[in-house]
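Subject: Sanity check before I submit

Could someone independently write out the structure tokens for this chain? I want to compare against mine line by line before I put it in a report. The sequence has 126 residues.
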Amino acid sequence: QVQLVESGGGLVQAGGSLRLSCAAPGPIFSINGMGWYRQPPGKQRELVARQTTGRAPKYSDSSVKGRFTMSRDNAKNTVYLHITTVKPEDSAVYYCDAEGFRLDGTTGWALRTDAWGQGALVTVSA
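---
Independent answer below. Compare away.
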């Protein structure tokens, strides 16, 4: 498996802002889409936002859409998640993913692959 590299997590005060980043390594190419997910403590992973290459990002609900902004730097194969006016309920482990291709080591063929980041812990203090 090829793993994405996440950064930007940490402790933030309620009402503050932060930006998460997620970079796809070189082995992944022709990325079709990238997305952000989060998993609050004791709950299952949920979709935050996702962007198909060449299209505008789509957000999971109106609450997320109002404070969460997803952007992408195609040249760097990097996706960002900017969160403003964070709330305690935003505390979660945030994951990014990328849908693209990789080269098989033995055949040299391009194979469809889904790669995930290691997770970035975001903790919002009151």
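---
OP: Matches mine. For the report I'm noting this point. The chain is about 5% helix and 55% strand.
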